[in-house]
């Protein structure tokens, strides 16, 4: 078995599915470079519930949970298998950590999951399942949520927090043209904390970082970063995947927390 790192990805706008930009090819290269997971667990802000829910679907449907975009996006499917056994293991770990999770045998993969997975594993040949994001989180509890799932990284599961390093929908919808300096400044502050492994600073990002309120008028797209960091056996070493800025305001950076470490034979 191989201990896997955890991963934070910025999934940007739904158009990331057909406009890979800088980040898409780098995620594809990462998928080839990592030890092959038994499954991918995705936490996305597009599935939020009062208490956690864990997807136990054998063949999750592709959910097109967005409107007003290129019609081609609604034709895309990501025909991946689920992994009910590992999903059940995630449910048990969350229960043991006091999160009161519930199984969900109906829900498919939202675009926060299938869009980045389409780049990471384009052949849809690695099973995937989702765990919902608890609706009431702060920096410490988001980190603890990831930590509850961390044993899965020793069991061949790649834990992915899918959010957005910056996420101001009002500015995105207004059609900002050139890159807004605040987005780069906020992203740089977070990147510095990530690279230094400063977990205390990361957990206080939305209170301390420059332009935090503008970068995240609502918090849900930031918490998956802390879930991913908390899920790592160790936050260091950390690798930054530069994704640039899209639509003037959406930072597309991704972070790999920890390094894959051999614990025997590769995961299957």
The helical percent reads: 25-40%
Biggest sheet statistics: 6 strands, mixed
pLDDT < 50 stretches: 262-268
Number of strands: 14
Radius of gyration: 17 Å
Number of helices: 10
Instruction: Please provide the ordered H/E string of secondary-structure elements.
Output: EEHEEEHEHEEHEHHHHHHEEEEE
- State the CATH architecture: 3-Layer(aba) Sandwich
Q: Report the β-strand fraction as a percent range.
A: 15-25%
- CATH level-four homologous superfamily name: LigB-like
| Shape descriptor | globular
How are the strands ordered across the major sheet?
7-3-9-2-13-10
Cofactor: Zn(2+)
Family: Belongs to the DODA-type extradiol aromatic ring-opening dioxygenase family.
Keywords: Dioxygenase, Metal-binding, Oxidoreductase, Zinc
Pfam families: LigB
Could you describe the 3D structure shown?
This protein is of the alpha/beta class. It has a single domain, classed as LigB-like (Protocatechuate 4,5-dioxygenase, Chain B, 3-Layer(aba) Sandwich), CATH 3.40.830. 33% of the residues lie in helices and 17% in strands. The chain contains ten helices and 14 strands. A hairpin with a 3-residue loop joins strand 11 and strand 12. Helix 4 packs across helix 10. The longest helix has 16 residues. The radius of gyration is 17 Å and the shape is globular. The protein starts with a strand and ends in a 6-residue tail after the last strand. The C terminus is likely disordered. Keywords: Dioxygenase, Metal-binding, Oxidoreductase, Zinc. This is Dioxygenase. InterPro entries: Extradiol_dOase_DODA, Xdiol_dOase_suB. Its cofactor is Zn(2+). GO terms for molecular function: dioxygenase activity.
């Amino acid at each position: 078995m191989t201990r896997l790192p955890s991963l934070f990805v910025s999934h940007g706008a739904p158009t990331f599915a057909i406009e890979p930009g800088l980040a898409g090819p780098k995620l594809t290269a990462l998928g080839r470079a990592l030890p092959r997971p038994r499954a991918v667990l995705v936490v996305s802000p597009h599935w939020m519930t009062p208490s956690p829910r864990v997807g136990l679907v054998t063949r999750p449907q592709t959910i097109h949970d967005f409107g007003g975009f290129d019609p081609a996006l609604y034709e895309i499917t990501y025909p991946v298998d689920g992994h009910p056994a590992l999903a059940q293991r995630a449910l048990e770990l969350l229960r043991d950590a006091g999160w009161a999770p519930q199984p969900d045998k109906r829900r498919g993969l939202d675009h926060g999951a299938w869009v980045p997975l389409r780049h990471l594993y384009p052949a849809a040949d690695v099973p995937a399942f989702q765990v919902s994001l608890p609706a009431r989180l702060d920096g410490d509890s988001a980190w603890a949520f990831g930590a509850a799932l961390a044993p899965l990284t020793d069991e061949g599961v790649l834990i992915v927090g899918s959010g957005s390093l910056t996420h101001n929908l009002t500015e995105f919808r207004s059609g900002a043209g050139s890159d807004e300096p605040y987005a780069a400044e906020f992203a740089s502050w977070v990147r510095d904390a990530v690279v230094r492994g400063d977990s205390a600073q990361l957990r206080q990002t939305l209170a301390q970082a420059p332009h935090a309120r503008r970068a995240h008028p609502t918090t849900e797209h930031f918490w998956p970063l802390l879930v991913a960091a908390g899920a790592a056996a160790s936050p260091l070493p950390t690798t930054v995947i530069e994704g640039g800025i899209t639509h003037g305001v959406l930072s597309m950076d991704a972070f790999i927390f920890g390094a894959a470490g051999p614990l025997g034979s590769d995961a299957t």
